[in-house]
Each structure stands twice: as C-alpha cells, then as structure tokens.
Amino acid sequence: MRCTVIGAGAWGTALANLLAENEHEVRLWAFEPDVAAAINRQHENPRFFANVPLHPALVGTSEMAEALAGSEMVVFVPPSHALRTVAAQAVAHLPAGVPLVVATKGIDRERLCPMTDVVAAECPGHPIVALSGPSFALEVALHLPTALVAACEDLTVAARVQTAFSTSGFRVYTQRDVIGVELGGALKNVMAVATGIADGLELGNNARAALITRGLAEMTRLGVHLGADAATFAGLAGLGDLVLTCTGALSRNRAVGLEIGRGASLGDVLQGRDTVAEGVATTESAKALADREGVEMPIVSAVHRVLFERQPPRWALVELMTRDLKAEGA
Question: What is the pTM of this model?
C-alpha cells in the first residue's frame, strides 16, 4: 500500500526503509530539504543515518501535501517536542480515516500526555496505533532480528499495522494497552540516562542491575496508576525496551548519562548534536506527571536533580541508596 513516514531521523528512516523493502510505496517526509534531496539522489540519509544504504524506491520530500497524497497509512516519528507542531501541519493533508501510527516515544511537556494523545488531538477522526519496543534503528536497517508491539484499542487496525511492517526478521505483536506501551517507551529513556550516569561513575554491574529493576518498578507504578496493565511492563514495550536502552552501546540516552557521570555538564553533552536523546526532555515531563498524580518515582526525581538542578551525580545516587528501608513491593 501507499505509506507515509513523517520524520526522517534515524528511526523514521529505518522504518521507512523497512516498509519500502516490504514493497510498499513509501514517501519519507523530512523537515530538512537537504535530507530529502540526499534520500532521492544518494539513497542515503547522511545527516541522521550515515553510511546506511536505503532502498532505491524510497522517496524523500519536504512537502507535506506531497508526502501525504493518497496515503493509506501514516507513521509519525518526529522528536517528541516537535510532534504537536508537525501533526498540526499534517492534518489538512491527511486522507479521511487513514490509520495513524505513532512511533515517537515521549510525554508531552505541555499537557503531560502520551504521544498518541497528541496526534489524536491534532488529527481527530483517525484510528491511532502506538508502535514501540526494543529497537535500535541501525540494527533494523541491518536486518537483525527485532520484535515490537503495535497497540490500538481496535485490534483490527493494530493487525493492519502488524502486517504492513512484519518480515522474517522484524516481528510485530498486537495488543490493546496503548497507555502501557506508550509509558514503557517513554520512561525507559529516563532510566537509561540514570544507568548511564551510574556507569559513568563506575558504580559497577550490581548498581546497573538495581537501577534497571527499580526503574521497572517505577514505570509500572505510574502506568498502573494511569490505567495501564501491569503485564505490559513485563513485555517488549516495557522490560524489553528498558534492558536494551539501559545496556546497549547504541543507546543515545545511556550515552548522555555516561558523559554526565564522567563530569560533563548537560549543556556540553547536548551541544552540537543533530540527534535527540529523548530521555532529557522526558525527565522533565515524567517528573511533572508523577508530581501531578502523586506517584513516587525516586529515580526520575534523582535524574531530574542531576540534569536540571545541578546536583552532583554521585550525591544523587547516594540519596537513592540511603532512602528509607521498605519491602521490595512497596
């Protein structure tokens, strides 16, 4: 079918390329005209996905109307801070009733809602699917085995997305817990920053394992409070994505934490980066959401103090380790 991917960062480019390899007719919308031009002329995205050859049938464009004309499935993959603006730009050009897939991971800073809610508010009248799970863009482009989740209240729509993306090396599961899948994909980035900080401080594998495990507990606690199924956080969009992002060498969020743990400032770490580490913005929105809902999230709070309140990283980790003693499930 005819598909549109909106957002030509590494993940958007990898998904567009996958769809093109599945013999769909794919147009990839890029904010940057030079990115669209390189995709068409060189079959490459040197700015965001360098040295990865792209399918020759993949078409790049910076014109929204051209990208969306006749589309039968639209995939949104811009950075979380730009999603609302991009969706508002797209709405006038969307074919009626076309399913909208949201592959952006984050929590909207303005309204403290998941990314699917952002798209639903800006583009009403369309079925919305959250696509998430443990996936580095480069490994998808290299056809290494990957498994994701497509979540939608209407499983028929989720199954259409499942069929569109699935290959022998890229497996998609369906389910209905949209909020759980969304929160898992967003909050794991904060936990990856925390794990990177601990690794930068050379606190060892024990500390990393503890952060991942207690991070999962925090994610689940907030998710269940907001109506998610606890089991979702034990699945691909929860534990799976958490482990990958906290331990993988390709994780941008872990890399940010690693540099901060070694003594760099947040400004220095982010300066000059074209790529986005979503965990930085999500730390702010996750803390605000937890505070609003009265849900205790000590790791999120510790990362917030380090990133935005200038607390030395080692002090933040000491505070985590010296909190009041309690039962594990509390």
Answer: 0.95
